[in-house]
C-alpha cells in the first residue's frame, strides 16, 4: 500500500483494499474535467478539506481546480468511521484551558461548533442526509479506573457549555452490554453518517459553485515561483497557478514539498466490519446504530453498529504501508472486538478490512494556513477530521484569499518539525508498546 514516508505521491489508480463504504454506497459524485493549464488557485487532494476549500474559493468568484491523484475522496474521506465529532487533534478543552486560558478554550469550542454547523449545511444537499444517525458520541470508560478522569472531563465540558450528559454504569447498561463499559460521557449533538455520501455532497457543492475537479491526476512536483505564483507538474501536464492549497493531509508524500516533509507523522488507522449480525447477536450487545462509540484507552478503539447490522470496529493499524493489509492487523481488531463483546466470540471472521493514513502533528493539534510564499496547507488533525474539515477548508481558503483568521492556535503558527524525523516510526513503535502496556 502507498506509504507517504517512502513513496512518491499516490496514484493514479493506486488502489488499496476498498472500504465497506466504497462497496455499499451508491454515491453521486459530480463530473470531473480535464486538467487546466492555468488557474488562480490549485488545490491538491479531493477529500473533505480540499473540496470545502475549493467551494469557498469558487463562491468568492475565483477560478479553482482540485487535483486528485485517484478518484474523488480516495483518501480518508472515503475510509473513515463516519463519526462527526466536535473536536480535532488530541487536546480536550481542559488541556487548552490549562495551556492558554479559559477564554481561548471557549473560542476553540465555538470554532468546533461552527464546524459542526457547516457539516449540517452540507447534509442538506444530500436527500438521505448522508444516512445521519443522531444518538450522539459516547466516550466509554473501558475500565473502572477510567471513570473518575472521564467524570472530571464531563464536569470541565459543562463549564464550557457543551451539550454533554453523564451516564452511570447502570444507565449505560441499557445502551450497550459490555464488560468494558463502566460509565460514559455522551456528546449529545455529535452524530454519525456515511462518509462517502458526505464526500459526494461536498464535491457536488464545490462544482455547483464553479470549482473544477480533476481526478486520476497526481501532482508530482510543486515549485513556488515566489511572486510569480506556483508551478505544478501533474500526471496530465503542467499547471501554473497563483496560489497552491495543499489538502493531501495524511497522504502527503514526503517527496512533494520539503517544507512539509518533517512536520507530520502519517499514521494508519484501520477498520474491520463483521458480517451482518443476527437479531439475537444484536440483542446480546444491546447496541443501536444510533451511537458512535470510542473508549478511553491510550490506543483507542472506536465502533458503531451499521444500519445493516454489521459491526464496524476500528483502531490503530500497521506502522508501515507495506504491512497495512496483513491479516494480523485485522485479527488484532477482531480480538479487541471480542474483548469488548465476549458475546460475539462465535463471530470469528471479518468481512471488510481497510486502512487509511491520518496526519499526526508533534504537538497534537492541526495547523491551517500559510506554509511559505504562495503555498498554504491544512493538516495534522490526528485522526479527527470529519467534522473539522468543513471549517478547515473554509479557513484555508480564507487564508489563501488573505483574510484574517481567528486568533486561535490552529491558525497562528506552523506545524512543528519532528526532531530526528528519520526516527518518527521508531518513536511511534515505542509509543504503541507503551500504550499497550498502559492499556
Ligand atoms: C480508518 C479511519 C477512520 C477514521 N474515522 C474518523 C471518524 O470517525 N471521525 C473523524 O472525525 N475522523 C476520522 N478519521 C479521520 C478523517 O477521515 C480525516 O481527518 C479526514 O477525512 C481528512 O480529510 P482530508 O480531505 O483532509 O484528507 P483525505 O480525505 O485523506 O484526502 C487527501 C487526498 O489527497 C490526495 N493526494 C495525496 N497526494 C496527492 C498528490 N500529490 N496529488 C493529488 N492528490 C493527492 C489523496 O489521494 C487523498 O484523496 C478516520 C480516518 C481513518 C483512516
UniProtKB/TrEMBL annotation:
Residues 41-398 form the FAD dependent oxidoreductase domain. Residues 1-20 are annotated as: Disordered. One of its GO terms (molecular function) is oxidoreductase activity. Keywords: Oxidoreductase. One of its GO terms (cellular component) is cytoplasm. It comes from the Bacteria. PANTHER family: FAD DEPENDENT OXIDOREDUCTASE DOMAIN-CONTAINING PROTEIN, SARCOSINE DEHYDROGENASE-RELATED. This is D-amino acid oxidase family protein (Deaminating). It comes from Idiomarina loihiensis (strain ATCC BAA-735 / DSM 15497 / L2-TR).
Amino acid at each position: 500500500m502507498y506509504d507517504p514516508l517512502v513513496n512518491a505521491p499516490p496514484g493514479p489508480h493506486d488502489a488499496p483494499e476498498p472500504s465497506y463504504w466504497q462497496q455499499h454506497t451508491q454515491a453521486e459524485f459530480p463530473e470531473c474535467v480535464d486538467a487546466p493549464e492555468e488557474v488562480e488557485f490549485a488545490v491538491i487532494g479531493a477529500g473533505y478539506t480540499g473540496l470545502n476549500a475549493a467551494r469557498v474559493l469558487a463562491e468568492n468568484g475565483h477560478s479553482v481546480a482540485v487535483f486528485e491523484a485517484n478518484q474523488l475522496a480516495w483518501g480518508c474521506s472515503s475510509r473513515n468511521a463516519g463519526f462527526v465529532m466536535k473536536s480535532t487533534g488530541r487536546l480536550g478543552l481542559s488541556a487548552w484551558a490549562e495551556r492558554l486560558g479559559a477564554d481561548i478554550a471557549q473560542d476553540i469550542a465555538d470554532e468546533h461548533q461552527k464546524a459542526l454547523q457547516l457539516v449540517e449545511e452540507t447534509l442538506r444537499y444530500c436527500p438521505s442526509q448522508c444516512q445521519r444517525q443522531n444518538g450522539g458520541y459516547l466516550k466509554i470508560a473501558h475500565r473502572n479506573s477510567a471513570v473518575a478522569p472521564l467524570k472530571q472531563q464531563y464536569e470541565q465540558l459543562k463549564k464550557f457549555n457543551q451539550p454533554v450528559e453523564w451516564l452511570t454504569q447502570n444507565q449505560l447498561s441499557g445502551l450497550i452490554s459490555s464488560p468494558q463499559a463502566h460509565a460514559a460521557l455522551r456528546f449529545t449533538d455529535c452524530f454519525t453518517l456515511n462518509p462517502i455520501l458526505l464526500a459526494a455532497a461536498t464535491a457536488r457543492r464545490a462544482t455547483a459553485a464553479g470549482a473544477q475537479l480533476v481526478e486520476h491526476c497526481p501532482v508530482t512536483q510543486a515549485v513556488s515561483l515566489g511572486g510569480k505564483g506556483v508551478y505544478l507538474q501533474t500526471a496530465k501536464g503542467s499547471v501554473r497557478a497563483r496560489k497552491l492549497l495543499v489538502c493531501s493531509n495524511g497522504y502527503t508524500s514526503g517527496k512533494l514539498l520539503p517544507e512539509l516533509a518533517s512536520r507530520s507523522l502519517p499514521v494508519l488507522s484501520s477498520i474491520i466490519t463483521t458480517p451482518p449480525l443476527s437479531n439475537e447477536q444484536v440483542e446480546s450487545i444491546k447496541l443501536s446504530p444510533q451511537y458512535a462509540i470510542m473508549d478511553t484507552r491510550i490506543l483507542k478503539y472506536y465502533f458503531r453498529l451499521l444500519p445493516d447490522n454489521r459491526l464496524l470496529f476500528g483502531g490503530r493499524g500497521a506502522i508501515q504501508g507495506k504491512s497495512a493489509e496483513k491479516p494480523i492487523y485485522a485479527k488484532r481488531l477482531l480480538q479487541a472486538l471480542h474483548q469488548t463483546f465476549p458475546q460475539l466470540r462465535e463471530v470469528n471472521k471479518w468481512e471488510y478490512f481497510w486502512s487509511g493514513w491520518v496526519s499526526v502533528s508533534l504537538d497534537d493539534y492541526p495547523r491551517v494556513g500559510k506554509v511559505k510564499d504562495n503555498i498554504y496547507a491544512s493538516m495534522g488533525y490526528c485522526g479527527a477530521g470529519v467534522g473539522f474539515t468543513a471549517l478547515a477548508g473554509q479557513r484555508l481558503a480564507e487564508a489563501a484569499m488573505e483574510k484574517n483568521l481567528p486568533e486561535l492556535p490552529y491558525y497562528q503558527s506552523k506545524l512543528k518539525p519532528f526532531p530526528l524525523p528519520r526516527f518518527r516510526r521508531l518513536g511511534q513503535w515505542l509509543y504503541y508498546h507503551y500504550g499497550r502496556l498502559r492499556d
